[in-house]
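This part of the workshop introduces the protein records we will be handling. A record pairs a protein's sequence with a compact description of its fold. Backbone structure tokens are a discrete shorthand for how the chain folds in space. The question running through the whole workshop is how a given chain folds. The record below serves as our worked example for the rest of this section.
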Amino acid sequence: MNVETHKLNHGKTSAWLAAMRLRTLPLALASTITGVGLACHQGAYDLVIALFTAFTTILLQVNSNLANDYGDYLKGTDSEDRIGPERALQAGVLKSTEMRKAIVLFSTLSFLSGLTLLYLSPIDLLAKGILFVAGVLAIYASIKYTAGSNPYGYRGLGDVSVMAFFGIIGVIGAFYVQMNTMPWSMILPAMGIGCFSAGVLNVNNTRDRLSDIKTGKITLAVKLGEENARRYQVFLMALGVVCFVGYAILCFDDWNDWIFIISLPLFSINGYKVYTIRDDAKLDPLLKQLAMSTFLLSILIALGMWY
């Protein structure tokens, strides 16, 4: 069953849940779980800090989803030509004023949760200042993806943002607030999660490529064209796998550390299917498949580090 193309259930509660896109949360949490799991491998683990890291990540993701709904609605991107799921504002169930208030609420909650996380973390004052700036930028980026004037998601820069905030900052930040140190090898799993997260966005943008062209939304998939967008997906999957295997070769000693490897074929499958399936509507299930594969990878990484 194609879960991505359902019409919205026209009720306030279901509309808010749909706008928050809770199905994206496992992907958002993958960076936190990976970073915390690898910190455990280095001998550091604080449950409270881990929970606040996860909570802040969830709030930022929900805020981004709400802002995306709001921005695309105002710009007319969520039209009837779009293949993906019907949006809350598009369906008329929620008002734009309500969505703006929700964005302000979740931006505030993200900010307060991030401040609490920094207060609890053992890192020094300079590092807290740097992560504070990164957190503010994350909130700003979550809103400016499609909302406001000249949003960067309409200029083909969404992939860069996803790689930065879902991958490099997300994984390294989750590791650093536990460890108060950052070995250079951490860039490998951070880039790996970033590649898979960017892959989710690329599947979405490849699917919506034709409708985005009609509404003037210039994503990277639009810039690349159909064939190169599909090749880009294969590249992202391959690079992500190489990053994790490379990190394991450098840093893992015990056989149980390698348990994550059983999830790697799932990324090869995703790259192959995105490249070979030419019906855009049939790309929908691959969004969920890749998001859940990334989440599974992060869980396996954490389990391997724990035992």
About this structure: Confidence is low (pLDDT under 50) at residues 1-6. The domain at 12-306 is CATH 1.10.600 (Farnesyl Diphosphate Synthase). Residues 47-74 form the longest helix (28 residues).
